[in-house]
Amino acid sequence: MITINPIRWGKQYKSLEYQDVIHFENGESIAKIGQVNGSMVQMDIRKADNARKALRSIPTTELLARCKKAAYLFEHETLPVGDGQQTVDDFIHQQSASTGLPEHMCRNNMQKNCFVLSNIDKILDALTRGLDLDIFSRGYGEEGRNVTVSFQCQTPVLGAVLPNNSPGVHTLWLPAVPLQVGLVLKPGSQEPWTPYRMISAYIEAGIPAEAFCLYPGGHDVGSTLMAKCQRSMIFGSAQTVAQYAGNPRVQAHGPGFSKILIGDDIVDSWEDYLDMMVESVLSNSGRSCINCSGIWASRHTEAIAEALAAKMGSIDVTSPTDPKSALAAFTNPQMAKGTWGMVQQDLAESGVTDMTASYGERLIERERCAYLRPMVLHADSPSRGVAMKEYMFPFVSVVKCPQKEMIKSIGSTLVGTALTGDEAWIDELTNATHIDRLNIGPIPTSRLNWLQPHEGNLIDFLFRSRAYQLAPLKVAEKV
Amino acid sequence: MTVALPHWIANDQQISEAKKALDQHTYETVQWHFHESTGSPFWLEKKKSLKFDPLKEVNSFDDLKKFPEFEDEWLRGGPVNRWVPKGLAGKPTYVFETGGTTGIPKSRVVVDDFRIDYENFSYTLPDQYFPKGSNWLMLGPSGPRRLRLAVEHLCQFRGGISFCIDLDPRWVIKLIKKGWMEHLEEYKKHCIDQAITILTAGHDIKCMFTTPKLLEALASGLADKGTSIQEIGITGIFSGGTEFTPQWTRFCVEELLGGPAEESGVYMTPTYGNTLMGLACSRPVTAEDDYTIAYYAPQPRAVVEVVDFDDYNKLVGFGETGRVKLYTMTKEFFVPGFMERDEGEREMPFNKYPWDGVSGVKPYRGFASSTTVGVY
Question: pTM of this prediction?
Answer without folding.
Answer: 0.88
